[in-house]
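task queued by scheduler; priority normal; single chain, no ligands, no partner chains; default sampling; output format set to structure tokens
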Amino acid sequence: MTDDWNPNDPDASNVMYDLSRWSFDQQAELAAELAEAEIPHTWDGSELVVPESHEAAADSTVTRVEARLGITYEGDDNGATDESARHDPIDIPAGVASTEYDLGEWSESDRQSITQALTAERIPYRWEDDLLLVSTAHEDAAEALMDTIEAGDFAMLPTDDASPDELPFETLTTFFLAAERLQRNTQDADGLEQLLDALEVAEPERRPYGVELLLWQKTCELADALASALVDADEPDHETAMAVATDLHDLLRPYI
């Protein structure tokens, strides 16, 4: 929160974001992004509060973090419980202004990523050959998503096509979050709990949905080494644990 903005001022125009369905770690990730972007903000419980003057920047930041962390919602924007409606693409209505993006140089996987991201965020769009058309009213959010994909920070979301023999993608995310905590503090109890919980279900030959087998096996190898350094010996080897946690974090960062 900045000195020249008082969210409790009755004359202040603020925007509220209900993030009650976000986890604490996800909210913390967003707070860090907002601070880095110098967007004034504060929290009222699970509600994020920003000044109306920074609404566009906050919208883009929230959208970018949702895309990077793979955050989805069970209901649509009006609170509906029909999950299928959340994943149906929205075409640009007739007469609505649109912005064109020439994505002819994008790979097929990146095109699938932006299509999935726009659909998940309920942003109206349409493809015309290599041109992506997005409703102009949503262009800031769409560009934030494209920036995330071009930076390699967007995780393809799990779909209903996952095999019963595959783990959910969130298993990989849990390893990443554990490594993120433990590389900063090897005595972080929550980080260690996340690590051990993920190891309970992890099997090197049973990869999460959408994850390459070699990447998954390397993840399991580093996670096992990290747990061994912290809990298997008589005394924790914090120096080794911090180094392994950093390796695990850096390995998974491009995929989360």
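post-processing summary
- Residues 213-232 form the longest helix (20 residues).
- Residues 34 and 124 are 25 Å apart (CA to CA).
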